[in-house]
Structures are given as C-alpha cells and as structure tokens.
C-alpha cells in the first residue's frame, strides 16, 4: 500500500458489511399530513449507527404492489434511488416519471418526492441519503 493512500489499521468487518437477506426489512413508519401511513419496507445497510458512517446512509427499499411511499422532502439532505426491479411511478416535484430497472434517480435537497407502485411486481430499489442519520422527513401530502 502506498503511503497516504489508505490505512492498514484493523477494521471491524462485522460493522462495515451488512446483508439485506440476513437483516430483513422493517415497515416505513412516517405519517402524512392527514394522518395517512407511509407504505413500504426498508433494510438499512450503511448508516451512522450500523457502520459508523459520517457522510451517507444506504438502504434497500421494497414497495409492494398497491403501496405508496408518501410524497415528502428533506430540507437537509439529497437522496437517490436506483431501481432494481418493478416499474413504479416516481413523483419528483410537480412531475411524475415511470421508472424502470436500471434507472438512477437523483433527488436534490428540498425536492418533493415519493413512489407509487401501481403494478403487479414488487419494486426493489437502493436508496441513498447524503446524511448518515437524523435527516428531516417533511410530509408534502
């Protein structure tokens, strides 16, 4: 290893590597403006608490057929989605977009966004947020 290019310190692999199939999923728990419940599942893979990350959070998201991830925004963080399967409607600002597997979608800080799975296939996606934890979720519906 070249000097200044990294560390040869011992790392805790158990803290740095997490597997979605071993961790499982938790239901989204946010509430909308009129008391409606956010829908979908999430498995956090990289975060401040899990990995010691100081700059990002990465999760595996799952939106089942008929579910809607509430439109919301983050005033303090940007976000991205990478669609792995399914063809959800992605709400971005005042536009909608029919996503497909392989799409990378960037959501700038403050932009309203959400997902509707109006299809018969489960939507699987990788979700990243530019903060490791404690970002604000502000419902827009």
From TrEMBL:
Q: Which domain of life is it from?
A: Bacteria
Annotated InterPro entries: Cupin_2, GPI/OXD, RmlC-like_jellyroll, RmlC_Cupin_sf
Domain Cupin type-2, chain residue ranges per copy: 62-127
Alphabetically ordered keywords of this record: Metal-binding
- Keyword Repeat recorded: no
Spell out the protein name for this chain: Cupin domain-containing protein
